Each structure stands twice: as structure tokens, then as C-alpha cells.
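Incident log, support desk, overnight shift.

02:14 A customer reports that sequence design results differ from what the structure should imply. Their input is reproduced verbatim below. On-call engineer (initials T.W.) acknowledged and began investigating.
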């Protein structure tokens, strides 16, 4: 199976403020999510900041993809945010992650200066809107089978088999 990561902005520029009751509900759910990830998958979760601007990381991800380092950069960002609690909206954090996966020191500046990478992010967001997606995670198999939200491994396995015709 080939995985192709797509961009999705949870809090795009111009979004209304996060209602306090929603932020509280997210904060309340975090310990249970972390415990489930530890129990079910052996992964320790250290949450990054909530409500940040992820767009620079998405643009840099497109740059990394174009330079053959997309999967490595994507995984580096996931680990930084979910396992080390780093702020992936911070340009210094992004520059360090880029260098960690052997991208040039000026990769972030180059990515942000080249409109093609922002256009690729916008195209991914438009595709998500066309699918009717309003949140992540969301996985689409073979362009027609949607798995929405965090689901058990067996659910993904079943969707992949259907997509493969089995």
C-alpha cells in the first residue's frame, strides 16, 4: 500500500476564536486519548499546543516532498508535535526538523517564498472540502472508501482490503 499524506488546516487563518467550552472539552479528552495510545499502541503522547497555525509546517511538508524527503519530514513533524509537545508553528522548530531530515538550512524560507507549495496545500484543502471532510484524521482508500477518525487497526485493514478488491 502506498500512503500519500494530504494537507489539512484545522485552524486556517481567519478562523473564529475557539469557544472556551470547546477548548475545555478538548483538554478534558486528552488524558483518556493519551492513556489509550499508551495501552493500545505503546506510544507515549506529549501534546503540542492547541489551536496553532499549522500552515507553515504544511507548506514545508510540500517542499520536503518535492525534494524526496516528504515521508521523513512528515514523521519528524508528527513526532515533534505528538511525542515531544513541540510547537510546530514555531519557525525555529520547523527549521530544526528540516535539517534533521537533511533538507537545506534555508528550506523553510524557500518553501514559504515559493507560491507553488502554498498552492499545493490549498489544493489538498479543497480536495478535503470536496470529500466533505471537516476534521482529521481521515483516510481515503482508492479514492472511494473513507475511514473517518481514529479507528482500530482492523477497521483500516478491512477498508484496505475492500479498496484492493478483496
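02:41 Re-run completed on a clean worker. Output:
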Amino acid at each position: 500500500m502506498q500512503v500519500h499524506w494530504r494537507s489539512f488546516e484545522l485552524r486556517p487563518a481567519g478562523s473564529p476564536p475557539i469557544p472556551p467550552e470547546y477548548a475545555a472539552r478538548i483538554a478534558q479528552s486528552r488524558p483518556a486519548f493519551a492513556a489509550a495510545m499508551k495501552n493500545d499502541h505503546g506510544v507515549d503522547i506529549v501534546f503540542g499546543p492547541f489551536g496553532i497555525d499549522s500552515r507553515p509546517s504544511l507548506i514545508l511538508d510540500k517542499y520536503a516532498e518535492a525534494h524526496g524527503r516528504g515521508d521523513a519530514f512528515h514523521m519528524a513533524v508528527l513526532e515533534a508535535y505528538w511525542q515531544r509537545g513541540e510547537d510546530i508553528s514555531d519557525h525555529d522548530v520547523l527549521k530544526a526538523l528540516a535539517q534533521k531530515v537533511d533538507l537545506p538550512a534555508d528550506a523553510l524560507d524557500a518553501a514559504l517564498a515559493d507560491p507553488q507549495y502554498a498552492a499545493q496545500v490549498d489544493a489538498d484543502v479543497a480536495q478535503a472540502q470536496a470529500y466533505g471532510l471537516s476534521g482529521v484524521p481521515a483516510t481515503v482508500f482508492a479514492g472511494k472508501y473513507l475511514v473517518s477518525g481514529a479507528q482500530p487497526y482492523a477497521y483500516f485493514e478491512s477498508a484496505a482490503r475492500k479498496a484492493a478488491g478483496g
